[in-house]
Amino acid sequence: MCCGGMYFPTELGIRISELKPGDEIIILKGEGYPAVEKETVATVWIVAGFSALCADGTTISCISISDFMLTGEHHDEFEVSEAAKQMEAEAAIRRAEQDRVLEELMKDDEPDWSVPDPFSNEPE
């Protein structure tokens, strides 16, 4: 796993990964994706690795925010916006496509011996 293009999780990435659905956070003005226009209180809907999707449709990750604050509130029930549902639906399609491609790659694990070895021991 990586975060922010690095090969190890950042402290911020670890903090995001520890969030739970229903946690209430404060996203600073200009941060998140799409960027919030003012300091915003959002409820976490889905946590995936070092990223999270909030119920209002804002995503947070090491790339899109510099920090966030927990309010200390947790909601067992909350409304999820249509924007957030659409983002999750699009992400689900991409995950399914990645899974299909990976399955296709793993399906044929027998090497193709019909291709000549580029480092053959045979004289030219």
TrEMBL record:
This is Uncharacterized protein.
